[in-house]
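Quick one, tokens below. Sequence please?
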């Protein structure tokens, strides 16, 4: 039974969310502030975190940042009244899997949760089944330890997020090939909408920064089409 963490300070909404997800067959832990949510994440394993943004003690964006800084491998989605474009972009830049603005229907929430869990469970199964052959990728003067989310470049080691590692592995598996933007979005997010597209831009920028010391590799933008991961010949 998948275990879901809900961090929501409105007691009435929190009860409705918990009841709806439990009725759909999930185990649910409910916390009412960001600090309690962080303690729960550090003490338990969850399959998904559903985070309000405007929380007491520690807001949802800060909680998500802490999750990523601690390299905790758990997908998360935001539920919030913050519907401005800048807020949505910030959510996706933090690596969220979905961003649902209030008010929303409980049935829609359940379907979105099911979609995230289905997508992430497939990703986990694929990674597990290919672990013996695809954990480590060497390219140029760099290497990616996909299993441990570590990128080694120019004598430095960067700890990647799940999405950064997935994106880099996709590039490494298709060197010098055009990867269309919509293809990348569908493969990694199963969504090619505007806000997810902006999230991709952020991840591309981060990978370029990490790889900058290695002059033998680069991510080239093919305007209006997509990207090429180019590796110079020795």
């Amino acid at each position: 039974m998948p275990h879901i963490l809900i961090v929501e300070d409105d007691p009435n909404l929190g009860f409705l969310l918990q009841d709806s997800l439990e009725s759909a067959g999930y185990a649910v832990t409910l916390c009412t502030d960001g600090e309690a949510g962080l303690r729960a994440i550090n003490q338990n394993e969850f399959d998904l975190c559903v985070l309000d943004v405007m929380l007491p003690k520690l807001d949802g964006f800060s909680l998500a940042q802490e999750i990523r800084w601690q390299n905790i491998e758990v997908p998360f989605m935001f539920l919030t009244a913050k519907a401005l474009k800048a807020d949505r972009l910030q959510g996706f830049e933090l690596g969220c899997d979905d961003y649902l603005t209030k008010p929303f229907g409980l049935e829609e929430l359940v379907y979105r949760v099911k979609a995230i869990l289905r997508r992430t469970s497939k990703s986990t199964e694929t990674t597990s089944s290919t672990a013996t052959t695809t954990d480590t990728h060497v390219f140029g003067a760099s290497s990616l330890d996909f299993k441990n989310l570590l990128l080694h470049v120019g004598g430095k080691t960067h700890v990647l997020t799940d999405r950064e590692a997935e994106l880099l592995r996709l590039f490494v598996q298709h060197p010098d090939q055009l990867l269309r933007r919509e293809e990348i979005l569908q493969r990694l997010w199963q969504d090619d909408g505007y806000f997810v597209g902006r999230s991709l831009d952020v991840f591309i920028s981060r990978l370029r920064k990490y790889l900058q010391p290695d002059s033998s590799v680069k991510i080239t933008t093919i305007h209006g089409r997509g990207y090429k991961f180019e590796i110079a010949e020795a």
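The CA atoms of residues 118 and 146 lie 21 Å apart. The longest strand covers residues 217-222.
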